[in-house]
Amino acid sequence: MNKKKHRVRNFIVLPAIGLLAAGVIAGIAGGRGPTSAPSSAPAAADSRAASPQPATPYVYTPPSYPAIPDFTGTDSIVFEITGSGTGMVTYSSDSNFSIAQETGVDLPWSKTIEFEKAAIRPVTINAQHTAGAGAIGCRITINGKVAVENSSSGQYAVVSCTTS
């Protein structure tokens, strides 16, 4: 069993040594070793030969990024529910994702809230007819621009609007 281990080790070690020696010999023969032949290039005849030019310094140019949006101040959010009769309304009530609910409101209904500006702030409104059938709609306007609107109809219809 001991001879078997030596055979396996010799089978791996001896070829590795041979490859290493071949690499050293090839390096010497390729001119990278101490026995490489002298260069056949003529020596500079003029002592005023061109001296190496200084390298051009590297100038770092940082990437340009879009301007950071201004999140100071407030956004004017207008919630609107259209329809007739009475309804129940649930809506985002402030910038901290709080909600408020009003029941038995007369339709059409609207509420304006000033929210702190934010990078990402979904706002939502949901409404339902509480007496009978009919059409009901919702709309969210942010700073005068309609962000989302939706409508529904039927017995105790429900409508929902959410910004992204």
TrEMBL record:
Low complexity: compositionally biased ranges: 35-53
Localization of this protein: Cell membrane
One Pfam family hit: Mycobact_memb
Tree of life domain: Bacteria
Keyword Membrane: yes
Region (Disordered): 35-56
Keywords noted in UniProt: Cell membrane, Membrane, Transmembrane, Transmembrane helix
UniProt-listed InterPro entries: MmpS (IPR008693), MmpS_C (IPR038468)
Family: Belongs to the MmpS family.
Official protein name in the record: MmpS family transport accessory protein
Native source species: Saccharopolyspora oryzae
